[in-house]
Design goal:
single chain; alpha+beta; five-stranded mixed beta sheet; two-stranded antiparallel sheet; 7 strands; binds adenosine-5'-diphosphate
Length: 236
């Protein structure tokens, strides 16, 4: 079984690399064409190029997730824990997803307290977790909906809990544990309307566990979802 697992991890890693190299070339040429240096583009060509760019980005994201999974499975996924200002991380995540939220008709609300203490975290990896939770909260929402980012900082505790809540479709009780499993999606049918491959939460869970933290969800069908994760306060 261990041999089989190793084979699977090697396969995953090889496929991800072989997919990534040609995709980087495709993205490079898309960027070059859109500068119009090789020639002016008419409106239809600009539109097709924009669609190609967006699709290549989706593929790139998928490959990144497959690469992360292969690293996690091979035990080579590491975190570099330092003092991190979560307000900065969360603002960065909001900025990078604001356009997507606008497009979906979702309002993003930042309710972080002003006195957040520093936490012990890997800045890039925690940004990945926040972006993933935020993206899901926008994706599984409905036009006119809301997504809120909040944190609770109890002074008698050495932990800080962060929360991403949404007014979206919600999750049935018997699905709440399963959604953190790799490749698990509540609706995995061919006609499902949400893009993705079911890796974001599994990767987020691994990242939080590498921080010795906790990640969990509270939700009800039709009543939105609240995703929480907890990190340790930074001490000199
Ligand atoms: P993906 O978003 O690529 O499908 P994830 O691992 O991020 O993969 O999420 C797994 C599944 O959990 C999703 O397919 C969806 O069914 C469910 N889910 C995640 N976040 C939410 C949310 N905020 N509201 C409702 N369902 C969610």
């Amino acid at each position: 079984l261990r041999e089989l697992n190793k084979l699977k991890s090697n396969f995953l890693s090889m496929v991800s690399h072989e997919l990534r190299t040609p995709l980087t070339t495709i993205q490079g040429y898309i960027t070059y064409l859109s500068t119009e240096k090789p020639g002016n583009l008419n409106p239809a060509q600009k539109e097709y190029l924009k669609i190609s760019e967006e699709t290549a980005d989706i593929l790139n994201h998928l490959i990144e997730e497959l690469l992360d999974l292969s690293k996690i499975e091979a035990g080579g996924f590491k975190v570099n824990l330092k003092a991190v200002d979560m307000a900065e991380v969360i603002n960065k995540a909001i900025v990078s997803l604001q356009l997507f939220a606008d497009k979906q008709g979702i309002a993003l609300e930042n309710n972080l307290p002003s006195d957040l203490p520093l936490v012990r975290a890997d800045k890039e990896r925690i940004l990945q977790v926040v972006k993933n939770l935020l993206e899901n909260a926008i994706k599984f929402n409905q036009r006119g909906g809301k997504v809120c980012l909040a944190a609770s900082n109890q002074s008698n505790d050495n932990k800080v809990a962060f929360c991403v809540s949404d007014t979206g479709i919600g999750i049935a009780e018997d699905e709440l544990d399963k959604i953190f499993d790799k490749f698990y999606q509540v609706d995995s049918s061919g006609k499902r309307k949400y893009a993705g491959c079911g890796l974001g939460l599994a990767i987020s869970k691994s990242i939080i566990e590498l921080h010795k933290g906790r990640i969990w969800v509270e939700s009800k069908i039709g009543a939105g979802s609240k995703f929480f994760f907890e990190l340790t306060k930074y001490k000199d």
